Amino acid sequence: MGAAVRTTPAVGVGPGRIGDRAADLIWGWPSSGRSVLLRRLVAMRHTDAVRHTVAVRHTVAVRHTVAASLLVAAFAMLAVGAQPAAATKPLSSIGLRAQYDVGANINWAKGTMTVTSVAHVRNTRDGAVNRLAFNLLPLKIGHVTELAAGVGKQAVTPTVSDQTILITLPTSLAPGEEAKVTIFYKSTFNTSTGGKKSLFMRKNNIAAAYRWIPWLSRQQRYSTPNFGESWVTGTSPRVTVTLTSGAGLVYATSGKRTSSDGNSTTFTAHNVRDFNFAASPDYRIKSATWNGIRLRVLYKASNPTALMSWSLKSLKRFSNKVGKYPYDHMDVAETPAGVGMESPAMTWVDATLATSRFPYIVVHEMSHQWFYGTIGNNQRLQPFLDEAVGDFLTRDMLGSFRQPSCSKARLDLRVYDYSGRCYNEVIYVQGGLYLRNYRNQVGSDNFWAGMRSFYADRRFDVANTRDFLNHLDAASGYNSQKHAERFPSLYSEAGQ
């Protein structure tokens, strides 16, 4: 479990953790003063230009600093901190539906960001829901402070469990009902970029923020023995994000720009499972359009022609082989570290990559627009579905299949079960070879028919490896039991 996130206590309120008596203080105020504060706290305003922007503001996002100060003033009375959750069954909010209105104020000089996120959560289950789980990666790598939350007009005490924020609803949410959950926090960008710190960094006058929006998710352990990922999120039908900074930033995001107002720019995305961004006052932009899709390369030191060329080739090939790219825009942003990282409608590419690695990284991150972006998976449980498929698509395009340096191993284990040395060699390299050999056995036409069928059936869903292999086998007539050797937990009698 992660360390408790604490706040600066309000005057007259001692520092405390969630569950302390301080949580009752705000509700002990006279009802008139309490209601005025809460009305200010949760007030939502819409402008003619953007109808779904973030809470507590007079124009599209600019008064985010005011919103933040109101939230801090209100919730600091709670002395909101966080404590590790009790050892209970992991909470999952995967499958619930949410739309997000988010505002972020970036202090470029200080390297900090203040975030106010409003999730409009709808209970799509048959039974009542009384707790929600939100993934927030900066809890582990972003030095989060002043974490606070509210549901509707009522302040609540958020609990931090590793990389997850747990919210207990004041009233259970019946099937079909909706709750408005506001989460506020402050964070600091990393300047050192070892490990996964590059996912939330500011270096060389470029900032990058990954999974910084509290997003409906599932409690899962953050730490892995390798560079694999341990988070999972469902698709949101709409996300509106307003980024505010006085530094004249140019943004690469998962959304399209819908408006601007002074130092604030608003972006909206549809059918995405997260919304990330990179920003710099130094970015230059190279653009191209293919098949109605606007592709932008944002760069400082990288070769924009090479970035554009490999990105465009990938976009064309995977759209043809797997299925139509699901958005009408795509950003490819240079970052100063981290090798590469995928996001819906956006990828990051490390400017320090060796020339020999450059094509693989650009193409591999683009492949994730189809597997992880459009079709999600829980890499904690089954990393094969996005990383092995991504490696296959990449090496098949580049003609760069190679033999692994680790011995033959199972392909159905959790991300936590592979060593740091052999995770890449087993899941990526052996996994990619497994799919290449399968294609060679069943024939190219059958293989790609199964791939296209899976993509069409599971777009914007969270899928699993068995479902993927079932689609391939249905198209080819392959005997599924032959998968049992490498996927025993999915096919053997003992594993079922």
Structure overview:
- With 496 residues, the protein is an alpha+beta fold.
- It folds into 2 domains: 21-282, Immunoglobulin-like, CATH 2.60.40; 377-491, Neutral Protease Domain 2 (Neutral Protease, domain 2, Orthogonal Bundle).
- Helix content is 25%, strand content 27%.
- It contains 10 helices and 23 strands.
- It has helices at 31-42, 64-76, 138-141, 304-321, 358-367, 384-398, 423-442, 444-458, 465-476, 488-491; strands spanning 97-107, 112-122, 129-135, 145-151, 154-156, 159-161, 164-173, 178-188, 200-203, 206-209, 215-216, 239-244, 250-253, 256-261, 264-269, 277-280, 284-290, 293-299, 329-335, 340-343, 346-350, 376-377, 462-463.
- The strands form 5 sheets. An 8-stranded mixed β-sheet has the order 5-4-8-2-1-12-15-14, with helices on one face.
- A hairpin with a 2-residue loop joins strand 14 (256-261) and strand 15.
- Helix 5 (358-367) packs across helix 6 (384-398), helix 7 packs across helix 8 (444-458) and helix 8 packs across helix 9.
- It starts with 30 loop residues before the first helix and ends in a 5-residue tail after the last helix.
- Residues 1-86 have low confidence and may be disordered.
